[in-house]
Amino acid sequence: xxxxxxxxxxxxxxxxxxxxxxxxxxxxxxxxxxxxxxxxxxxxxxxxxxxxxxxxxxxxxxxxxxxxxxxxxxxxxxxxxxxxxxxxxxxxxxxxxxxxxxxxxxxxxxxxxxxxxxxxxxxxxxxxxxxxxxxxxxxxxxxxxxxxxxxxxxxxxxxxxxxxxxxxxxxxxxxxxxxxxxxxxxxxxxxxxxxxxxxxxxxxxxxxxxxxxxxxxxxxxxxxx
Length: 225
Ligand code: DC
Known about the structure:
With 225 residues, the chain is α/β, with parallel strands linked by helices. The chain has one domain: Rossmann fold (3-Layer(aba) Sandwich). The protein has nine helices and eight strands. A five-stranded parallel beta sheet has the order 2-6-1-7-8, with helices on both faces. Strands 3-4-5 form a three-stranded antiparallel beta sheet, covered by helices on one side. A hairpin with a 2-residue loop joins β4 (77-80) and β5. The mean pLDDT is 93. The chain binds 2'-deoxycytidine-5'-monophosphate. Residues 34-35, 38-39, 98-99, 102, 137-140, 182, 186, 190 line the site of 2'-deoxycytidine-5'-monophosphate.
């Protein structure tokens, strides 16, 4: 039997990253934050002085960048030309520009293929030694891993999503714009508010992280029995 693939989708503030990482940790899987690939591509372009609105230039840069993904749920990190850029890709500079790359229709398919290849590698071997992968991101249940063993869409009321992010620092207005503004931008290329066929929706509004993790572990177990 090849490794399990668990795909988790959803907008900002649904607990997607925390939940996915914990699911991977509990099941001994690789943890793949697909959004990181868009962030690494953005950092690369910013460093190399590529105009982020120059669609083909960005795509050409993405095609040639040298990235290594270390999918350890205990310490996920990313190397660009051998340099650990895990912290840099979380900077405000990258966060403010990443939607330009995520909505670039020439660069996006290249990164999507990189993500599919990464998942295929993890079910055969990779960090998890073939146990499998928990992948998260806004189109993983649909465009990236439509055949995944478990496909979950996490949702939560808008106000709760904004409040969760506000709890991480920054002022309320900035957080509101960051969460809802990014939803608007990203929804031009991927639909992540409605579950596709076969995708289980978990409304996290009134649930703790542990409760969401347990629900996904139950789905994983059911998928293998
Ligand atoms: O989840 P995140 O903030 O790291 O995502 C970074 C950007 O990439 C954000 O604009 C959403 C986008 N993204 C995407 O379009 N598809 C994915 N599978 C993952 C992220």
